[in-house]
Design a protein that fits this description.
20% strand, 12 strands, 241 residues, 38% helix, single chain, 8 helices, four-stranded antiparallel beta sheet, alpha/beta
């Protein structure tokens, strides 16, 4: 689909390259070179998506994202040279819908833009559940409990605050501890909860949940990665990550 895209990038050569690729895709592109101009364009123009570099003069991308999210749901694709998990999570926590780390392929950027616009314009309904017995009042996996009726999660007896997307993901995993779910399967359960959904959405929720339910988030023993497949919730309090 053709969209009005704002590219906020202080490197003129990089900005021109991104503009060229997006225009080839049929988008109308406005380029700005500082954060304040990006925020003004997003506020006042017909912006349908913002490609936002983190490191910019006048106002950095994180502050732009924070301010924009207080008043608008326009999709934000963040570009960052920061590669640590904490830096990436900060941008996502502030409301970015997806991110690319530098250096990146312009073709991948175009694909991410396409996915965000498609999700925003054609939100997919959550698939109807097949007839089944009522779920248990409380789901348990070791010292982790998920209460679907009260929308409550506890880990080691302490309450855990979850976003709707995080709760839904944990609920699905806790219903069948030990079962491996692919990212595609988990995405299906998030439709209708998260506004803009990509495979990165699942990874983001997993990273956030690990910070909340794991004793040592960098060495998870509950929410485990099954490399090349997806994720599972350990059946007991400990497991091999």
């Amino acid at each position: 689909m053709c969209a009005h895209v704002v590219v906020a990038e202080d490197d003129p050569k990089q900005a021109d390259l991104v503009r060229l690729y997006l225009e080839r895709e049929g988008h109308r592109v406005v380029v700005v070179h500082d954060g304040r101009a990006a925020l003004e364009q997003a506020r006042n123009g017909p912006t349908q998506l913002l490609v936002l570099d983190v490191m910019m003069p006048v106002m950095d991308g994180l502050d732009v994202c924070r301010a924009l999210r207080a008043e608008s749901a326009v999709p934000v694709l963040m570009l960052t040279a920061r590669t640590t998990e904490e830096d990436l999570l900060l941008g996502l926590d502030l409301g970015a819908d997806d991110y690319l780390t530098k250096p990146y392929s312009p073709r991948e950027l175009v694909a991410r833009v396409r996915a965000l616009l498609r999700r925003g314009s054609h939100p997919l309904p959550r698939p109807a559940a097949a007839p089944a017995a009522a779920p248990p009042a409380v789901l348990t996996a070791g010292a982790l409990t998920v209460d679907p009726l009260r929308h409550e999660v506890t880990a080691d007896g302490r309450p855990v605050s979850c976003t709707p997307g995080e709760f839904r993901l944990l609920e699905v995993l806790a219903a069948q501890p030990g079962r491996v779910f692919t990212r595609a399967q988990l995405l299906e359960h998030l439709h209708g909860i998260d506004r803009y959904i990509t495979t990165r959405t699942v990874d983001t929720h997993v990273m956030n949940l690990r910070r909340k339910i794991e004793p040592q988030p960098r060495h998870p023993t509950r929410l485990l990665t099954v490399y090349g497949i997806g994720y599972k919730l350990a059946e007991g309090p400990r497991g091999a990550s």
